[in-house]
Write a structure and sequence with these properties.
Layout lengths: L3 E4 L5 H10 L12 H9 L3 E8 L2 E13 L2 E11 L8 H15 L4 E3 L7 H9 L18
Length: 146
């Protein structure tokens, strides 16, 4: 059965389980997400949680954020993850193409993402679907949480 991509509309048990299964692929510091936290993301204006399913099982995810700035509508892709056993089957490409389709439909002028250089396969994917490597500095400010 071919993989498909959908936008999550509710934080059902299967979605929460899958996101929590995929989170360790993204971060060692984020251990889990509650159904309430996930529902807040799904319901957030401008946010889309894309899920890739293969034979009904969620095997990948991507978060797309679209918002207005003074220079136009911009989009950002975050938290792209595909199960190790499902890699190399086009799942990441399906997720990326659907995110780009949604961003275009929402009139985004640009779509940005970041990726560590060590994620060689992911970086090849981003170039293959049309992203261009930018010569820019990426900065992060960490907010201290008690």
């Amino acid at each position: 059965m071919a993989a498909s991509v959908e936008v999550a509309i509710t934080a059902g048990d299967d979605v929460v389980e899958a996101v929590n299964r995929l989170l360790p692929l993204l971060s060692a510091s984020v251990l889990s997400i509650t159904p309430e936290q996930l529902q807040a993301i799904i319901a957030a204006p401008g946010a889309s949680l894309l899920l890739a399913r293969e034979s009904g099982r969620i095997v990948g995810m991507l978060t797309l954020l679209v918002g207005a700035t003074p220079t136009g509508i911009r989009a950002l892709i975050e938290d792209v993850a595909v199960e190790t056993t499902a890699r190399g089957q086009g799942i990441g490409e399906l997720l990326m193409k659907e995110a780009l389709r949604i961003a275009e439909a929402r009139n985004a002028r640009t779509v940005d993402l970041t990726s560590r250089p060590s994620r060689e396969a992911a970086n090849r994917l981003y170039l293959r679907v049309g992203f261009e490597k930018r010569d820019t500095n990426v900065y992060r400010y960490r907010i201290q949480v008690d």
